[in-house]
Amino acid sequence: LALLTPAQDTPKSPAPPTPNGYFSPVKGEELVGNSLRKDSLQKLWENSSLPIDVYRELYQRPVFNLLQCVQNVPASPDGRWSYAGSFGDLTLQFTTTAVRLSRGYMFPPGAAPEDQAMQSTVWQAVIFWSALFHHMPLLSVLQGEMLNGDGWQPGMSVPAHPYRFRFRK
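The structure assignment produced for this chain is given below.
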């Protein structure tokens, strides 16, 4: 089952080289290329009760969009999550774990079993979305700038030009 469906692009002329200290923006589909992220998406799919087309729209596409908005920023200035792209890795691991663990619980707590069964897909989506955005406050300490001088706030938009970032003091 191939969950990833890269967009069909027309051939483009080669982009000019990115200056030292800047990163080139990358599409979400490309940002899920490493084994950890592919594994996380596969586990999300395995723990989903949605049809594949709904899963792609409500889970996979938001993951791609979030990864595009954060690009390769780290989650922390030092420690385990300080490497390039660690914010995306942290977010996907956390989200996958939350969705997987939630399968062992019935929501809403205390409701009749038939109500819980009827609402399970909705609650699973609530848990997915909550987990997906749980670490967003970590991005508030990052300051981004694009090559053309415009500001870029990681997590809020996709950089349109090569970009760089730093942790605020």
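Interim note for the steering committee: The mean pLDDT is 88. The two ends are 45 Å apart (CA to CA).
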